[in-house]
Design brief:
The protein starts with a strand and ends with a strand. The radius of gyration is 24 Å and the shape is elongated. It has 475 residues and is mainly β. The strands form four sheets. Strands 1, 2, 4, 5, 7, 12, 13, 14 and 16 form a nine-stranded antiparallel beta sheet that branches. Strands 17, 19, 20, 22, 25, 26, 27 and 29 form an eight-stranded antiparallel beta sheet that branches. The chain has a seven-stranded antiparallel beta sheet with strand order 3-6-15-8-9-10-11, with no helix packed on it.
Length: 475
Amino acid sequence: MHILETTASPALIVFIAVLLGGGAIGCASPGAEPGATRASASGQAGDWTRLFDGDSLDGWRNPYDWGEAWVENDEIRLRADDKFFLVTEETYGDFVFEGSVKLPDTLSNSGFMFRANVEPNRVFGYQAEVDPTARAFSGGLYDEGRRGWLSPREGEASGEEFRTTVGQAFNPTEWNQYRIRAEGDSLEIWVNGEQTTAYRDAKDARGVVGIQHHGEDGKVYRFKDLRIRRLGSGERASSASAPPNTLTEAEKEAGWELLFDGTSFDGWAALGAEAIPEEHWKVVREGGGGAIKKMESDNVPTAPDGQPLEGGDIMTDRTYRDYELKWQWKLAKGSNSGVKYNVSEKRSTASEPTRAALGFEYQILDDERHSDAEDPTHRASALYDLIRPNPEKKNLRPPGEWNQSRLVFDGRHGEHWLNGEKVLEYDLDSDRFAELFAESKYADVEDFAEKRSGHIVLQDHSDTVWYRDLKIRER
C-alpha cells in the first residue's frame, strides 16, 4: 500500500471530484473515441496516457494541509474531514479523459476536476459532478470555487429536466465511468456512456485534472482506470481554431448536422420569393472559412419596424420542431438582425411585408450603438419583444468579433445562450410567458406562439451581418 498523507491529522476525509470536457447532449459510447484501444505513456497527441499506474501516486499531489490519499487494490482512495482535491502534477489543455468512481453511499458527493487551477489549500475551476443524492446532478458541469452551477441550473426548469432524464445515468451503488472531452471552448461530459452535458465556456483553457473528497468524515472515496488522451495533431485542437462550417467527430457522434456548408446556399431559400436576392445576401470568405453575409441595403423602403419591404429573409428548406441550434455571428457597427424560429412561411407571407418572417426571434444587435437597445427585450440575445437577456450572464463581444450563440427549442421549453452562458429560458405554457406575450407587439397575431414544425430564418434588417458555423441537432 502506497500512502500520500499531509502533516495534518490522518482522520481528515475529503470527497473526490473529477471534471472533464466532452461533447453535446446525447448518447455516445465511452469506447467510441478514435484510438481508445491504445494505452501509452508517451503523452503524445492521439495516444492514451494512464494517469494512475495502479501501484503508486506518482504524478499526483495534494495541495492541501489536510486529507489522505493512498493506493489499494488498483484504486486511488481518499479520506478526509474537510473538502480537498488530489490533482495531477501535469496540466492539460484539449483532451479526452476517462475515469471511474465509486462512492460509499447516497449522502456523499464528489467530482472530476479538469482544466483546474491550484493554489495552496485551494483548487477551483471546471468540475464534472458526481452526485448520488436525490438531486441527481451527476454529469452536470460545476464551476468549483467561482460561479457555481453552469449546467444544469439549480431551481430552474433545466435542473428538473436534467434530474429526470440524463441525471439518471449514474448508479449510486456501483462503479460509474465518466468521459470528459475539453476541446477549445467546448466542454462535454458522459456518464456510463450517456452524454449529460454539452456546454461552451472559455474561462479556462488549461489546468490540472483532479479528484475530489467532499469532506464527509470517515468515508472512503474510490477512483480507478484514470487515463487521458491529448487532442492535437490529426485532430482539431480546439473549436476556436478548427475550420468553421465543419463537424468534429464528437459532434457527428452526437447527431449534429451542418445547415451551411461554407460555400453555397444549398439548403436555404428565400422566404416569399423564388430566389435569394444576390444584392442582399452573399456567401463570402471570412477568416479562413465561408460565411453568409447580409449586405447593407441603403435607402430601401422599410416597414414601421425597420425591415425592408424588398430583399427579405432567407430560411432553411427544411422545417424543424424540437432541436438544439448553434451558430456564430458578427456585426458591423450599429447593425441589427436576428435568427428567427418556429416560422411558418405561409403565415409569414399572408400579410405585409411578405418577405419578413413571423416567428420567435433570437435578437442580433449592436447594443452599444443601435437605438433599439433602449428596450431591454430588443437587445442582443433577447427573445425579441418578449424576454430580455439576463445582464449578469451576458457577455456580448464588440462589432467585428465573432459571437457564439445557442438555442434550445424542445417541447414547450426554450433557451437562449450567448458565448457559453444561458441568458434566458421560458416555457410556453407558463403564466409568466402568457403575461409577457400579452404585453408584446405579437399579442394580436393569431397563433403566433403556437408550437409548430417551422423554418429557421436569418433576418434581413438592411444592416451588415455575418453568419457561419450553423449547426442543428434534432431531439
